[in-house]
Each structure stands twice: as C-alpha cells, then as structure tokens.
Amino acid sequence: MRTVAVLGGGIGGLAASYYLCKSPQVTKVILLEASSRFGGWLWSTRRSDGAVFEHGPRGIRPAGAVGSNTLNMVDDLGLGEEILPVSYSHVASRNRYLYVNGQLHKMPSGISGIVRTVPPFSQPLLLSVAAEILVNKTKNDDESVHSFVSRRLGKELADIAVDSLCRGVFAGDCRKLSVRSCFPVLYNAEQHRGSIVLGMLLGSGEAQVITRGPLAKRSKKESWAQWSLKRGMQSFPEAIAENLQQSGRVQLHKEAVVKQIDPSASGWQVRLEDGVLSADHIISALPAKALSSVLPRSCQPLTQQLQDISSVTVAVVNLEYDGSILPVMGFGHLVPSSEDRGLLGVVYDSVPFPQHNRPDGQTTRLTVMMGGAWFEEEFGVPEAATAERLLSRATEAVRCHLGVTAAPSWSRVILHRDCIPQYYEGHFQRVESMRGFIKNNNLALSLTGSCYDGVSVNDVIFSGRTAVEELLGTVV
Ligand SMILES: Cc1cc2nc3c(=O)[nH]c(=O)nc-3n(C[C@H](O)[C@H](O)[C@H](O)COP(=O)(O)OP(=O)(O)OC[C@H]3O[C@@H](n4cnc5c(N)ncnc54)[C@H](O)[C@@H]3O)c2cc1C
Ligand SMILES: C=Cc1c2[nH]c(c1C)Cc1[nH]c(c(CCC(=O)O)c1C)Cc1[nH]c(c(C)c1CCC(=O)O)Cc1[nH]c(c(C)c1C=C)C2
C-alpha cells in the first residue's frame, strides 16, 4: 500500500490517519478536510478569561474496549496531564433527571430506586425487571428501540425513559431507531441469553479485548464515569493533528473540499476545487450524504444507500449565568417527546466540569439542546430558525424547568446541521450491503465515521482503527 487518501478531518478521519501512520506498510497519507479546522463536531470555545464551552461532545466514557482504546490514544498523544476525570461517585454521575409533567424527577438509581415506586414511574422498576426474564425472545432480526423495550419492560419505561435516552444520545425518535444498531448490547443480550437482565448478569457475547495502557488502568482504578480535557474537547483533535504533522508521513490539508472521486488504473483520482491527486486507496470518514455526492456514476447502488442514511439537526445553546443558580446538582435533565417535542434536554456543564468555569467569580454554565428528529416540525427549515428565536426558547426552558429567572450573562447559539446520523430499523443490513458492494466490485474504498458503526467518539475512533486493520490485514 503506497498512498492512502483519508476524506474528512473529523475525529473519524484523524483516527484513521493516526492508525495508518503506525504501519510501515503505508508510504504516504493524505488527509483532506473541507473546513478551516480539524475535529468536526469536537468543537470548543475558549474564552479569553479562561472559560471553556463545548458545542459538541463534552464527556467521553472510558468504559469497555472502545473506551480503553481511546484512552490509549490519549496517552500516546501525551494528553494524560490534561485529563479532567469524573468518577462514578461524583454527583454528576449519580444524578440525572427527567423533566416530566412540569417537574424534575431524579432517575432511579441504586437498590432503593429499583424496589420503590419512583415518580414519574407508576410502579417499582423491580416488577418490570423481574417480569423481563420471562418474556420470549423475538424472531425478528431488528425492531425499533421503543418496540423492543415495550415488549420486554413495558410501555411506560419505553415512553418515558427510553424515549428520553434516545433523545440524549441520538437526538432521535425511539419509535424509528433500530435496537440492533443503536443498542447492540440490549439486542445481543436477548439473542444470546434470552433476556436483558440475564445478559447484564452473565455477559451477552464475545467482548472485544484491548490491552489497557497506563491511563486506561488509572481510569479503572479511580472508577471514572467520563472524562474531558482542561482546554476542552477540541484539544483532542488538535493533538492528533499535531502528532500527524510531526510524523512527517501525513499531508494535512484544510479547506480542501473533495468534489469527486473517480476510479483509475491504480486506485482513485480525487478531484478538489483546485486540483487532482491520486491515491491507491480511499478511507472515507465523510458524512454518508457527502460521500454519496462525490462518488462516480458506476457506484450508483452505493450512492443510493448512502443517501438513505439520514441525519438530524440539533440547535446547541451555551449559556453562562452569574452565581450558582441550579436548584439541583447532577449531569443534566432530559425531556421526553411527550412533554416537549422540540426541547431535548439541558446539560449542567458546571457540575461535572467546574474547571471550565471562568476562574474569577462564581458562574454556572448550561447547554440547552433542541430539535433533533423534531427540528423541522418545531422550528421549520434550519435556514429559518434565527439565533434570537433559539436563544429565547432555550432561556425560557431554563426558566420553566429550573426556575432561573435571571438573564444569562453570556450565550452562544449554534445550529449543527445534520450532525447525528440516525440508525433506523434495518441499518445493519444497509451497512452490510454497502460493504458487500465495495467488496464485490473490488473498490479500494473503506467506510468509517459516525454513519455506520456507532456515533460516540469512542465508536468512531474504533471504527477508524478497524478500517485500517482490515485494509492492512494486521493489528495496528
Ligand atoms: C451536539 C453533539 C453532542 C455530542 N455529544 C457526544 C458525547 O457527549 N459523547 C460522545 O461520545 N459523542 C458525542 N457526540 C457524537 C460525536 O461527537 C460524533 O458522532 C463524532 O464526532 C463524529 O465524528 P466523524 O469524524 O464521524 O464526523 P464529523 O465530525 O462530521 O467529521 C466529518 C468531517 O468531514 C468534513 N467534510 C464534509 N464534506 C467534506 C468534503 N466534501 N470534503 C472534505 N471534507 C468534508 C467535515 O467538514 C467534517 O470535519 C455528539 C455530537 C453532537 C453533534
Ligand atoms: C439532549 C441531547 C443530547 C445530549 N447529548 C447528546 C445529545 C443528542 C449526544 C450524546 N450524549 C452521549 C453520547 C455518546 C453515547 C456513548 O455511547 O458514549 C452522545 C452521542 C452520552 C450520554 N448522554 C446521556 C446519556 C444517557 C448518554 C449515554 C452514555 C452515558 O450513560 O453516559 C444523557 C444526556 N445527554 C444530554 C443530556 C441533557 C442528558 C441528561 C441526562 C445531552
């Protein structure tokens, strides 16, 4: 393998380039990013007074093989000193809230939360959990998350808890999202153990094994639930880009919009706005629709399937208030779609990461997230949603849900167009079929990024690693 072009410089493209660089089999890597910044949705505002605001992900989970894999990379990049860990015993890990019937309710946790009736639920969770063990397994090879949970745990849990969870991870509608692709642990638990509960107790499949490096070991020892970085999440892609630059083996191009890719005798011709370059192989870490628009006509079946992977738009409103204004302490609260379709939830950023507050004086940072699968019905076309309207809707939610009547001392409104892919029912078949088309047609193309194998930062990084290992036929 001589030259590999990586399309898209979000965390997926950066991760793929990082793993390619580890192999002596690859002579040259060319990373092409359309915008003026690497990192994609990992995007932070660092204000001159020291405050940090996240516009995309704000915490990464260290759990599991994918979590360890990311921490190994963080270690290798020399970012260990920059880590801000949040342990499982921290109030931000213990307390998450639901806003239901005009009130905040702490989500049930611990033994007492399971054996007692905890509003907004009408019966102890223990009853649903105990009955779950007896529910027969389905013969369907996929179903919606809502249907799966209604069938196994009851409609109330599906309508309130799972509806909210899907909004807090996918900004999506649990009635359309696929359980197999969005929550493979739940799907596999039913398939292999016949029950979610038994799957949790006994394990539900072959777990991937990743050797834990020093930072991953520390995260285990200190029971981290999530982590961030002192200068914000954006430091992570910045450190990868710096590492790639220093390797001397990667050409990094910003403001390089890929316009078209065409097969050539030895691989691909990649057409940019201002020139053409050649590559033996392409790893695409572009959003599915962006890739579909640059493929040649000969890839029509693939183009169509890529277009069928839709994504939702989320309005992210960062707010700063003077003083300690929160009536409760925790990670934040989610709002089920039955309560308010357009308002997804509010993150209490100052609770897990007070280090990101302005250093002088007491302030509270919150992030309100709106829209998602309900964006158009609530706000119309994204072009029509003004910053004033989104800010007013966000501050009104903070007033109504948290009783904060003061105006924010600082705010920033950002519209993330098509930012979270939606894995609808049948997603796994579509992805299998796309990869099958690539294989059967001997295309020197790999698909990675958030549109295929998981949307979390950990999943996207791991997908970049898998693409490189499959390409090279070795472990990197
Ligand atoms: C608001 C929000 C909150 C989130 N919170 C969390 C969280 O708490 N924890 C978590 O784990 N995950 C979270 N995520 C998910 C995670 O951040 C994303 O799934 C992940 O960053 C996607 O990375 P990616 O590289 O696949 O895609 P992207 O970040 O979309 O990168 C794709 C890149 O391709 C570029 N591009 C597009 N077209 C072209 C072209 N024609 N030519 C060249 N380049 C092009 C784009 O400019 C972009 O930089 C969140 C996401 C959002 C939006
Ligand atoms: C309200 C909207 C959103 C909030 N965060 C996201 C959206 C769309 C995006 C998001 N959040 C998480 C992930 C990664 C999932 C993973 O597998 O690591 C993504 C893409 C983490 C997350 N956030 C919440 C939960 C339950 C999770 C899953 C992992 C975990 O248990 O930590 C809850 C939550 N998210 C938001 C709020 C307000 C909230 C409230 C309790 C914001």
Automatic annotation (TrEMBL):
Keyword Secreted: no
GO molecular function annotation: oxygen-dependent protoporphyrinogen oxidase activity
Entry EC no(s): 1.3.3.4
Bilayer topology term: Peripheral membrane protein
Top-rank taxon, per record: Eukaryota
Pathway: Porphyrin-containing compound metabolism; protoporphyrin-IX biosynthesis; protoporphyrin-IX from protoporphyrinogen-IX: step 1/1
A single cellular component GO annotation: mitochondrial intermembrane space
Localization in the cell: Mitochondrion inner membrane
Catalytic activities: protoporphyrinogen IX + 3 O2 = protoporphyrin IX + 3 H2O2
Matches recorded under Pfam families: Amino_oxidase
Cofactor(s) needed by this chain: FAD
Entry keyword set: FAD, Flavoprotein, Heme biosynthesis, Membrane, Mitochondrion, Mitochondrion inner membrane, Oxidoreductase, Porphyrin biosynthesis
Enzyme class: oxidoreductase
Cofactor note: Binds 1 FAD per subunit.
Swiss-Prot/TrEMBL GO biological process terms: heme B biosynthetic process; protoporphyrinogen IX biosynthetic process
InterPro entries (UniProt xref): Amino_oxidase, FAD/NAD-bd_sf, Protoporphyrinogen_oxidase, Zeta_carotene_desat/Oxidored
Ranges of residues in domain Amine oxidase: 11-472
Assembly and oligomerization: Monomer. Homodimer.
Family statement drawn from the similarity comment of this UniProt entry: Belongs to the protoporphyrinogen/coproporphyrinogen oxidase family. Protoporphyrinogen oxidase subfamily.
Job description of the protein: Catalyzes the 6-electron oxidation of protoporphyrinogen-IX to form protoporphyrin-IX.
Protein name: Protoporphyrinogen oxidase
Organism annotation: Maylandia zebra (zebra mbuna)
